[in-house]
Amino acid sequence: MRMLIQWRTLFIGIAMVIFFATTAMGAKTHLKMGMVLEPPHLDPTAGAAAAIDEIVYANVFEGLTQIDQNGTVQPALAKSWDISRDQLTYTFQLNTGVTFHDGTTFDSDDVVFSLTRAMAKDSVNAQKGLFKTISSVKKQDSHTVIIQLKRPTGSFLFNMGWGDAVMVAKETVQKNKSTPIGTGPFKFNKWVKGDRVELIKNKSYWGNPAKLDKATFKFIPDPAAAVNAMMAGDIDAFDNFPAPESLSQFSANSRFKVVIGNTEGETILSTNNTRAPFDQLKVRQAIAHAINRQAIIDGAMFGYGTPIGSHFAPHHPAYVNLTYTFPYDLETAKKLLAEAGYPNGFKAAIKLPPPSYARRTGEIIAAQLKKIGIELEIVPVEWAQWLDQVFKKTDYDLTIVSHTEPMDIGIYARDRYYFNYKNAKFQALMKQLDQTVETKKRYALLATAQKILAEDAVNGFLFQLAKHGVWNKNIQGLWANSPVQANNLTQVYWTK
Amino acid sequence: MRLFLLKRMISTVLTLIVASVVIFVVLEILPGDPASFMLGIHAEAETLAALRAQLGLNQPLSIRYLEWIGGLLTGDLGNSYTYDVPVAELIRDRIMVSFPLALLAITLSTLIAIPLGVVAASQHNKPLDFLIMGFSQLGIAIPNFWFAMLLTIVFAVTLRWLPAGGFVGWDAGIIPALTSLLLPTVALALPQSAILARVTRSSMLDVLKEDYIRTARAKGVGYWSALWHHALRNAMIPVITIMGLQFSFLLAGTIIIENVFYLPGIGRLIFQAISQRDLIVVRDLVLLLSAAVILINFVVDILYALVDPRLRGFNDG
Of A178, A214, A266, B68, most Cβ neighbours within 10 A? Predict the structure, then answer.
């Protein structure tokens, strides 16, 4: 008999848990979002991991400016700014009544602190280059900051909108990695390492308050587990679903919405420009002619992706379509190879990092290049190995990677970058671009830059990565595109 | 006996020291730099140097080894490079998932396997025996990760009774926590119990042929009573040996199962730490696991000596 009573208690207990779990779901002010990778920590000013920004950007931390859904600069903690005629002095007016989540006020001192910290010699900011142009940051009064630049910088306001340039408080900065304190519409609540991060609504937010009461980011590295979690209703949304092959399963289900958007990720066949035979322009052009982009997009990405012909995002207003600079043409490719001294092709290696886009694309590229006699040995590597061998020591022939930073064409002008590309003309052009502020002129310079890279066939330009959003059809306000690596939840809400 | 213990202890400590050196050196040889992993492909050389200095990566190898061991001896496992929190904290949180999972799985598999094995043995060569052994054959053939996926599709995706994965945490209450461990436990336990049931059955069959069982029955002890009280106890010895072996398989199994059910356990921590080159975490975890194995061996050696006095005798001379 006692046994029976215990069983009954257990049974009632389970029933109650199920009941409360379902009623909690009915309230619908809680969004559970899936992510593939867990961030190492939550301080966007001290690490490159995209997963950090995907949780805290715009939600927990804000900068002077912010990048919106269309990739344009909007005021954030700075409500307005004046730019001097020589383009060297920026005067920012800060919003008043802004407080950090610990209750302290945000003012000019915090701006001076945050930017000085990012620029400092011992700074570990992953995008330190963003601050190189700043010569001084001064407080004029409690809500006015004057920033002096060393040279005119057209992208300065955009740069201040990056996650790496958010405002932090001196008192709490040391603990931001584990308990981030920002000014945003969501407060950090809890981090169960390996499982999830929880944010809750900041009730004393200075601006437009968030519509959700709670947001949970759950980490699911395995694509098959991600499908199950969505189907089981454990997760409401995946901003960027890791497996394009599963998307049809979701579009066939009336509970979900599948939204294909664009990203800043140029997926390229990175080429070591100083290693023979890739140091020959004709060899690189031959490869460009031998790549069938549509076949790659269909085969590796299940049809999602836009072909590109240079290192530039197709949705940007300054984009020039150069996809057909070297159209798919095996005869021309073979001819160019023969002219370069390789009538029978050659052997090389391609190092592939772990993401599925890279591994699948690599296999298709190997098959395509085989048709013109280039035999590729496929070498799969881990990320840490890739960073060490390919990126740092440039010990590679070819590799595939998606460059996901926005507006990053400037990397081709760097003195030492892993493509080992050197073109004085391009470097001069980038310098000129940096000092040009007028939009029209900037676009013209960017167009020239795209053409130089395309004609030099620096890398095999393959496709722009698509963003595969999958979410419950009753969710509104999630971004279709990702101009920055972020899940901006400030305007997200449930319709039911 | 005292001399024997002393000898075993010295060799255990020496094994641990050798293990720590091997672990340290192998991880240093491994290509990949934690700093460049953390800063990504846009980092400038100057920033990388600053971070390496901050992490203490530019000190000589021998100093770093001694600092590590010194820390361990004083109970300080160091700070994780990527998470920037004490490693001890990370491991403690993860053990709270992996250990209960392994324990639940071994309990469940025993509870299923032993009755099934006994019943199969008692019904030797009858339909029920064939049925049980058929299922057990199936259980051995099915890999646990595949079985795990099957369970999720049925109970989480289709019926939506249970979560597809994740772990709510013990602070959410015992019942929600156990609910999130239910499918992983079953996925781990069933294939294990298939093996255990077979071992129990064959061991029982051997014992049932023994004279003392016949004597017990002749004395008037009932069939089931003889089975449970006399046969099972003696048949347990090989079963326990197999269970001990299975525990290490179970640990390997949890690494896979933790990935299928995205549970924040030790297995996923090692996985993640290796790919992010969080060398401190990898080092501590591998040493911890090696220490566990070495210590179990030590205990087993002592147990053998206790059970079998001949071993002691030789050593005492």
Answer: A266
Give this prediction's pTM. 0.81
Q: Where are the alpha helices (DSSP H) in A78-213?
A: 108-119, 156-159
Contact A272, A397 (CB under 8 A): yes
Min mean pLDDT across A22-31, A91-100, A332-341 is at A22-31
pLDDT averaged over every residue in chain B: 84
Residues with Cβ within 8 Å of residue A193, at least 6 apart in sequence? A38, B83, B90, B93, B94, B264
For residue A70, what are the domain limits? Answer: 65-170
* B255 close to A (CB below 8 A): no
Q: What is the SS3 assignment for A336?
A: helix
Bridge partners, A75 (sequence order):
A65
Place domain B93-316 in its CATH homologous superfamily.
Answer: MetI-like (1.10.3720.10)
Q: Is B171 exposed, middle or buried (0-12, 13-18, 19+ CB in 10 A)?
A: exposed
| Chain B (130-149) residues lying within 8 Å, Cβ to Cβ, of chain A | 149
* Residue owning tokens 């070819």: A398
Q: Of A113, A142, A170, which residue constitutes the final position of a domain?
A: A170
- The first and second tokens of residue A91, run together, are 């005067």
A269 near A307, Cβ under 8 Å?
no
Arithmetic mean of pLDDT, B65-72: 89
Q: Which two tokens stand for residue A489?
A: 């939840």
DSSP code, position A64 = S
Q: Which CATH number characterizes residue A89's domain?
A: 3.90.76.10
Residues of chain A by 3-state class (helix, strand, coil), percent to 5: 35, 25, 40
Q: Which is more confidently placed, A181 or B168?
A: A181
Is the CB of B84 inside 8 Å of chain A's CB atoms?
Answer: yes
Domain CATH code at residue A254: 3.40.190.10
Q: Across the interface, do A14 and B264 touch by the CB < 8 Å criterion?
A: no
pLDDT number for residue B82:
77
Of A174, A157, A185, A148, nearest to A439 by C-alpha is A157
Comparing CA positions, the residue from B30, B37, B172, B15 lying closest to residue B97 is: B172
When mean pLDDT is compared over A201-210, B4-13, B65-74, B282-291, the highest value belongs to A201-210
Rounded-to-integer distance, Cα A281 and Cα A337, Å: 10
* Torsion angle in degrees (nearest 10) through CA of B37, B39, B44, B46: -90
A231 and B CB contact within 8 Å? yes
User: A303 and A422 in one domain?
Assistant: yes
A389 CB within 8 Å of a chain B CB: yes
For A142-186, the pLDDT digits (tens) are: 999 999 999 888 889 999 999 999 999 999 999 999 999 999 999
Q: Could you tell me which chain B residue has the CA closest to the CA of A13?
A: B175
Q: What is the ipTM metric for this complex?
A: 0.73
CB contact (8 A) between residue B261 and residue A225: yes
